[in-house]
Amino acid sequence: MPEPIIKLDNVWKTYMLGKVELHALRGVSLEINPGDFVCIMGPSGSGKSTLLNMIGLLDLPTKGKVFVKNKDISKLSEDELSQLRGETIGFIFQEFNLLNHLDAIGNVTLPMVFQGVSHEERQKKAKDILIKVGLGDRIFHQPAELSGGERQRVAIARAFANDPEMVIADEPTGNLDSATGKKIMEILTDFHKKENKTVVVVTHDPNIASYSEKLINIKDGQITVNHQTASNVLWSR
Amino acid sequence: MTILGIVIGVFLIISLLSLSEGIKSTISQQLRALGGETILVMPGDLSNPIAMFMGGAKLEKEDLEAIKRTKGVDKILTMSMQAAVVRYEDEGKTIFMTGLSWKEGIEILEKFQGWTLKEGRWPVPGKREVVIGKQIETGVFEKTIKVGREVVIKGRKFQIVGILNSLGSKQDDSAIYLDINLYQDITGEKRGTAQYAMVKIEDGGDVNKIAESIKEQLGETRKRRAGTDIADFSVITSEKMGDIAGSILNVIQIAIIGFASVAIIVGGIGIMNTMFTSVRERTREIGIMKAIGAKNSSVLLIFLFEAGIIGFLGGVGGTIAGSLFSKVIETYGQVHPLFYFRASITPELLLFGLAFSFFVGCFSGFFPARQAAKLKPVEALRRFE
Fold it and tell me: What is the C-alpha to C-alpha distance for residues B221 and B227, in angstroms, rounded to an integer?
């Protein structure tokens, strides 16, 4: 068995709403292994965003443990966690979340700046990735000059900039039309297959879920289905 | 608006420091010119410098005679000055004209003040002749002034008989010098009086004791004449002049540093406010940066640097405005020939202004930057969703 990239062990996340305790996650345990393409599905308020935050090291559990390659993250400082996040995980958001004052290449180089990559190297890598996602002619365009699909491709390029082992995508096609969404998913699948990257996608869309090899259904903060193959998804592409 | 306070603060600091440094060097130059064995006698009380310089008071004939009578006094050079329109070859300019008692005082000027002629000769007392400062030769009129030509002062013709070598200060080099009797003829100043007297003491004399004696003699003369013992004259040795100028400058410096500090504090608060707003508006951006690997220290540095840049921009504005203001004061702000303003704008001063404003910006931005750095990525991303 390969060493899991991320392992959640009986993770609870509780928010206090006044005096009322709200359990967003209730004892969730899961493992994501290298090369997995995992889809997390669930209705609104089911806890899937909270789960994504745990997997992406953006938040810490109230109870339970999160391990990154068997390393307990609760023992890490904020800066160590940022470092680990920057080198291990790439993020793709529904809203693209590009920095509007930076052009495409500026957005893609940013994660490498935080990892201390030299100027020349990050320019070269950023150009290569932008060409790979089909934006070779949009390198110096500002986000405002790009279409939704192009912005999401810049976001994908940024997510892969530091050559992370895992990319997390939160509703990556949520703001795109179906044709553009399909293209985006093809790019993600391509990275997964050709470069053996681990991909975790959160979505409402059963069509998107059909790209995955592993499905996690979550409801009321608990995992209800954790299948190994796409054949277990009830919907077809 | 945010950077206006910094602009004003740095403007005050740059103009204050450049002018006060300039004034200091001018004063030390004047003191060097005065020499250790020379005493300056002026009408008016030094404790009221504005009245002294602007009041138009003079040393009367009796006063000058009293000075001459004082034991230990060797020679005195009397002088008066005022601005007048001087015409040369149909071109008129306002120039400072200084009347000097050549006959008695030329030795003081030559031996103790170091006056030398670049060209020509000294005027013959009583004749309508003038010598000009070095700056007048080429820097005032369109045409270069030549020895032997004439200038017209208040409708009377004077022959230029000499051009002085530089006297070491711009205002001295920009004046016309003539015999005090002729000066008094054309200005209407009473003959035998003077605005100032420069006293050369006898060799080996104690300058402070002789200054005291002059003060006593003048006091008695004035008491007899006006029936009052109010000291409306000042007897100044170079040492005392240095002390007075130093204390005046200190007061001015403290006052301006006070104003500058208030302006800079206001500017700093403005930057802090802007940065807090910026942190709030860019919370999501901070969340994104943290999600893609920015450490707390990176976010802190980004916001500190931005605040520093805001301060720096204010500093650029303040430095330019302060330097221009100092130059304007230097060019047009010649209040009095003895208190000539010179702006000392050095590269070090400009660098200090810019570095200081950058530091003020960073300092003001520290708390907003720290707030940004401490944001939890998940909270920052969730906010403004």
Answer: 9
| Distances in whole angstroms, Cα of residue A54 to Cα of each of A2, A24, A38, A68 | 21, 11, 15, 11
* CB of A58 less than 8 A from some CB of B: yes
The arithmetic mean of pLDDT across residues B169-198, rounded, is: 85
CA distance B372 to chain A (A): 14
Nearest-angstrom CA–CA distance, B59 and B194: 5
User: Which residues contact residue B304 at a Cβ distance below 8 angstroms, ignoring those fewer than 6 apart?
Assistant: B362, B365, B366, B369
The residue among B231, B264, B289 that closes a domain is B231
ipTM of the complex: 0.86
Asked if residue B371 lies in contact with residue B281, where contact means CB atoms within 8 angstroms, the answer is no
CATH homologous superfamily of A34-49+75-231 equals P-loop containing nucleotide triphosphate hydrolases (3.40.50.300)
In a mutational test of the B interface, the residue from A15, A58, A166, A202 whose CB has the highest number of chain B CBs within 10 Å is A58
In a domain, B287, yes or no: yes
d(CA B195, CA B383): 76
Structurally, chain B folds into a number of domains equal to: 2
Domain that holds residue B156: 58-231
In a domain, B257, yes or no: yes
Cβ pair A85, A71 in contact under 8 A: no
According to DSSP, residue B124 is labeled: P
**Nearest-by-Cβ selection for A91 from B284, B292, B295:** B292
Q: Determine the Cα–Cα distance for residues B312 and B356; give it in Å rounded to an integer.
A: 8
Q: What pLDDT, in 10s, does the model give residues B209-236? A: 888 888 888 888 877 776 655 557 788 8
Tokens of B320: 């330019």
